Amino acid sequence: RTQAEMAHTCRGTINLSTAHIDTEDSCNIVLSNGGRTYHLKANSEVERQRWVTALELAKAKAIRMRNNQSDDSGDEEPASQSDKSELHGPLKTLSSKLEDLSTCNELIAKHGAALQRSLSELESLRLPADSGEKIKAVNERATLFRITSNAMINACRDFLDLAESHSRKWQRLLQHEREQRIRLEETIEQLAKQHNSLERACRGAPGLASGTASIASTAKGDVQSAKGEASDEDEETEYFDAMEDAPAFITVTADPKHHRRSGSNLSGASEGHPEDWNLEDSVFESSNQSSYNESTGKDLLPRKRRRTRIPDKPNYSLNLWSIMKNCIGKELSKIPMPVNFNEPLSMLQRLTEDLEYHELLDKAVKCESSTEQMCFVAAFSVSSYSTTVHRTAKPFNPLLGETYELDRLEELGFRSLCEQVSHHPPAAAHHVYSRRGWTLWQEITIASKFRGKYLSIMPLGAIHLEFHSSGNHYVWRKVTSTVHNIIVGKLWIDQSGEIEIVNHKSKDKCQLKFTPYSYFSRDVPRKVTGVVSDADGKAHYVMSGTWDEKMECSKIVHSSHGSTSTEGKQKTVYQTLSPKVLWRKYPLPENAENMYFFSELALTLNEPEERVAPTDSRLRPDQRLMESGRWDEANVEKQRLEEKQRAVRRRREAEAVEALEEGKDYEGYIPLWFERKVDAVTGELICVYKGGYWEAKDKQDWSVCPDIF
């Protein structure tokens, strides 16, 4: 289309010549231009590629048409009269000056011709020889002057023709910039209006109190409702299709006078009415410990005094976008990153941080009912995200064969071991044994994608938890973490998706939904809701809270079907007893903002300890230098370690090629303390602890450990 036709197209049209075409995944296409963004979804990857090819061809054609538009079409420009006068004013001045020059040229030619005639007449006269030669020379100079003046006039005419030929191009460019400015102003005005209405709605909304109805998001929810807006922020807060089938429900607190029960193991929480929940045992005794250092058992030794601070984070300024702009679409683990974007902990230590609220599992051991036990397991699964709310820095990628132990058997009743069992893709195996009656193990592979404006981190792999006395075996998987404002603005992190916790012995289930942040939602930020149900699908407890603060549990005394929602789904109404707090986040230590927002446990994870394996993360030199504030030295050391690891990988690849040529089998890298087995519950091939580490530590025999540092 011509510019004139484009000016009269319907609302919502995107000019392909200036559009940006991108692909989100195997089926989604993003088409954006200025403030407008369209998300298109194809049925298959092949169809998506056909659409992308067609759009790219159309874009190339639009660009050619824009550049080759004829300058003769007078109605082509939708510019205002002021724009035309602004551009044509200099052209009129140039034309006027050119006319003056042409007049002067005519006068020069006229007088020059007269001069030449006079000189010719003088030549015809009988004059001395010297005079004739002089007159002839003057005649030649007059001819040269006339030729030069004609050339000057021709050059001026060429300049004016060139200026006229480019005038329409300048006018188009100016008009395009004006349209972009107007569109930006409209977008900002629209956002300001939305902000105003949100502020008014926030001031007029009633406070949330215990006993008021809380409605879980249905189907696509508020996040999807914002898709029609032209704000770029929507790209960061939508398209969580996996949650479309989440059940909608309403919880209403029942009158305690009409609902009393006996024989329950849920008791004595700090919130709610004690008479509603029996006090026969202390399973639900207040989970709100006042301090991380509070003792959790009389059978354990007093806790060792550990460090409570690390050196303050240096104030280094570095532009993340300047490093990552060429890395869009790549795996995060394959991007060379300076330590400026790291925190002085490895991924193995971050994995161990999940045990910060291990006492929830200690309490779960005492539960006689599997559904009550499920409540604590659910709270534990949510608690592992509480440390991430301010932690936007990237942990160190562990080297292949790197390990990390956390031996708190005498103090807290458990000991933990992690090992990096694969480098590409990065995978870590984790095993925890507690003498209080539970064992946890997992193999986590981190899949991450940098999308330009945000970073998606997708942990892959199942987490297994088994209680020794009951044999209850729980399995669940982690949700997706998203780091926003990568390019500009303050970094912030969000958790979104669903967790399904399954007890493979009793078939109890808990469905937890992590609601993603939405600019247009009135929900509490970082909200988590869920229902605990038995093998028959009967709901027993409602879980509610936020992943960065606390989780509550409410006993269901009655359930019924409510009205049908606007999306056509029928909501379930749960009548519950007053909620009890199962888990509440520990406060951060003093000066945490200058210590990478580490919790009290995180501050101790990299504390030097004796007798650990030579592959332990505490001994990693670049990480230790970074913690000490020597970032320049840490960057040099990090490059050395990575190059050393690449050399080992190249040698291993050469050995594999040599074995293949000789017709031999090549096993590749074999983990030190873990072995691959098919899990009997999930049927997946995972790394499980094979034993030997703690015995080697007692003997201080680390002969099997490679030299990785």
TrEMBL record:
Residues 1-60 form the PH domain. Residues 64-89, 207-237, 254-309 are annotated as: Disordered. Its main location: membrane. The keyword Phosphoprotein applies. Residues 174-201 form a coiled coil. Keywords: Coiled coil, Lipid transport, Lipid-binding, Membrane, Phosphoprotein, Transport. It comes from the Eukaryota. Residues 284-295 have a biased composition (Polar residues). PROSITE patterns: OSBP, PH_DOMAIN. It is a peripheral membrane protein. GO terms for biological process: lipid transport. It is found in: Membrane. One of its GO terms (cellular component) is perinuclear endoplasmic reticulum. SUPFAM superfamilies: Oxysterol-binding protein-like (SSF144000), PH domain-like (SSF50729). One of its GO terms (molecular function) is cholesterol binding. Belongs to the OSBP family. PANTHER family: OXYSTEROL-BINDING PROTEIN 2, OXYSTEROL-BINDING PROTEIN-RELATED. This is Oxysterol-binding protein. It comes from Alaudala cheleensis (Asian short-toed lark). The gene is Osbp2.
